[in-house]
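Example record

Each entry pairs one chain with its bound ligand, zinc ion.
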Amino acid sequence: MRMSGTLWMISLLLCIALLTGLCAPAAAEDAAADFQAEWKENGIEFAFSAPDYPFLQIEYSSKFSSGIFALLPTDGKFSGSIPLAFVHPGMTVKIKINTADQKTIAEFAPVSPEFEPYPAAEKAESGSLSGVTVCIDPGHQSEYVKKLEPRGPGLSGSKTTVGGMARGKYTLRRESIVMLQIGLLLRDELLSRGADVVMTREVQNAGLDNLKRAGIANDANADYFLRLHADNADSKKSNGIRIFSPYSSTYAKELTDAKTYSLWANTLLDAIKNATGQQKGYAKLNNTYVGNNWAKMPAFLIELGYMSNAVEDELLSTPQYQQLLAEGITDGIEELEKLKKQ
Ligand SMILES: [Zn+2]
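Structure tokens for the complex follow.
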């Protein structure tokens, strides 16, 4: 069958039109192709271009905040900020760019940069804690080191290292990361008041068991052993700070009696409560923690809050609150030093 000349002409024009994109729909998928997001302390600043649109709608949602607002371009560019009550490393915010008739023309999910360890601040030449050595033990690590460890000097039996660590029910952050973040702030706060600081770990993959952790504190001849943890509970209402210290290992008994150990733990607890405004919590002596039992100096395992509680999970990852914890713990060491001199 032969095509007529007219049909040939129509086909040819159709091909050219398709090739040159004349027949393609308006290039809506190109809208916001240059989208850029910058993380700030209190939200995200963004900018993008979408030449075909006189106005658009921004819809955003994170685990904690969501909202919607209209946006007009300035000099052909859309820009604005998404306010977030709370920004923590590794958090994601979903952003949709919608037209007035609620058609989504672009979607983004920027993730804020994850926390990275950083070098220690300079130690103050003289300060309230000059001559005092503190060993900080940020709880857990990326890999679980499974090991059967002797419970402690003078105590019978062994105990397998605890495998599970807490994970923020809302932030989804791992306890090992949050505790290292707080541990580094505590390190710098102690250094700023003249203390010497030894860390059991400054990395995630540390390969530590409890005996090694206590061993680092003992080898450094530390005056205090501070072990940072966060709690996890079935009830989302559980909250507060708890401190645990040993009382019947040979090392603990050589240090002091149970009554005095309890006074020390409560002194530290009160200082943290004062600095943070946290009301709830208690200090208790037990022989549960192998790392505590093997410490030759005052040892405090501090459960700084519950990662299963919405408010405390959020607070534990908030830089301002982390700093208050670091200051409160350091205040506590100052109070303990005062007790020592009495
Ligand atoms: Zn823990």
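Residues 319-341 form the longest helix (23 residues).
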